[in-house]
Amino acid sequence: MIFVSSLGVYFLIGLVFAIAFFFVGYAWILADAAGSKLRVRLLWFAGAVAIWPSLVFKWLHQCPKGRVPKENAGADAD
């Protein structure tokens, strides 16, 4: 029972992370895949839910503070 609860918490955290990742971090880590189709993004979403600890580490170490990803750079230039 504890294993099932732990697994549920792991995937819940992964789901929350994956949502945030695809709104903010996707352009940093997967810059080449930024223009990909919805099907590919859904596969990456499922993968992000499963391997979120690795992506958190990558995201934190690749994103310089105070910088905006290329695809969002024009949104702040108003």
Descriptive labels:
single chain; 78 residues; mainly alpha; 3 helices; globular; disordered C terminus
Cα(first) to Cα(last) distance is: 53 Å
Q: Which sheet architecture does the biggest sheet show?
A: none
Strand content: under 5%
Q: Could you estimate the helical fraction of the residues in percent?
A: 55-70%
Q: In terms of quaternary structure, what is this?
A: single chain
Poorly predicted regions are: 72-78
Please tell me the overall pLDDT.
Answer: 76
Helical stretch count? 3
* Elements, N to C (H/E): HHH
Q: Using only CA atoms, what is the Rg?
A: 14 Å
Which descriptor suits the 3D outline?
Answer: globular
Judged by helices, strands and strand pairing, the structural class is mainly alpha
Structural features, described:
The protein is mainly alpha-helical and 78 residues long. It contains 3 helices and no strands. Helix 1 packs parallel to helix 3. It is globular, with a radius of gyration of 14 Å.
Q: Helix and strand layout, with pairings?
A:
Layout: H1 2-29, H2 38-50, H3 52-62
Q: Could you write a compact summary of the structure shown?
A:
Helices cover about 65% and strands about 0% of the residues.
